[in-house]
Amino acid sequence: MDAAFYIASVVAIGATVLTITRTNAVHALLYLILSLLAVAVAFYTMGAPFIAALEVIIYAGAIMVLFIFIVMMLNLGERAAALERRWRTPGMWRGPAILAGLLLIEVAYLLLRAGNATGAAQAVEPKQVAMALFGPYLIGVELSSILLLAGMIGAYHLGMRKIEEMREEHGTHIDEGRVVASGDLVHAGADRADRAP
Amino acid sequence: MLAAILFTLGLIGLIARRNLVFVLMSLEIMLNAAGVAFIAAGARWGQPDGQIMFLFILAMAAAEVSVGLALVLQLYHRFKTLDDEAPSEMRG
After folding, report:
1. Is the pTM of the predicted complex or chain greater than 0.80?
2. Quick check: A45 contacting B, CB < 8 Å?
3. pLDDT tens digit string along A75-107?
4. Inter-residue contact A38 to A65 (CB < 8 Å)
5. By the CB < 8 Å criterion, does A28 face chain B?
6. Is domain A1-124 classified as CATH 1.10.357.10?
7. Range from A44-48, A141-145, B78-82 that averages highest in pLDDT
8. Which residues of chain A form beta strands (DSSP E)?
9. Domain boundaries along the sequence of chain A
10. How close, in Å, is residue A91 to chain B by CA atoms?
11. Which of A42, A28, A47 is closest to B1 using CA atoms?
């Protein structure tokens, strides 16, 4: 079990080194995903299978998909085409494939041993985590939900401004609508002011 | 140990790289390393607190990355580059 943890650690460190030394963003992302998967295996050997699953689903799934979308949106035109051509050559995916193969062998070994797979380290069940999470840490849950809401609104706002700028460049019809709406508001306020005294 | 090495690598990446996408990736590595430290401590003492802290780190990383990537998009459309020296036009 210790050996499994150390193999996963070595894979994670190697993948991270390769991540920060690549010049190509897509290759770096590939190695980063591999690093996260290796860390997930390390979590599994440390007795946190629930967190390992979350790591794969949220980090390696959701967050990395965000990164890949951004890289794809930024690499427009000829650079993307050149990237695509180099992608086909086998040398580019050999490194990730070897490291991922190591991890696959390790996971298969851990699953085949079955049962008390989370050996030496003390296993913490998901139920314990949930009981503590919605007990003493309830305020933390609420705070993180507020943080996520703020993040969502911030990302929406930052993406929104670009669309408005594009509309202003093309000569917009939105401003006319705003003028009409503000006119309505002034009328309503004026009526109220008349009736108030 | 693993956490320390990963955190150091993330810090090196943060300092050494000039591309904003790489800087964000290095931040992810550092957050992940902090999570590894929490999980290891939680496993060492058999307490669920470490895993709860990791859940909070996960939520924070998701929010941070969404805002950060939106900022990167804005920056790219404004300066047509991902160099992190580009927006430093605020001279003191």
Report:
1. no
2. no
3. 654 555 565 556 556 666 677 777 777 777 777
4. no
5. yes
6. no
7. A141-145
8. none
9. 1-124, 137-197
10. 22
11. A42
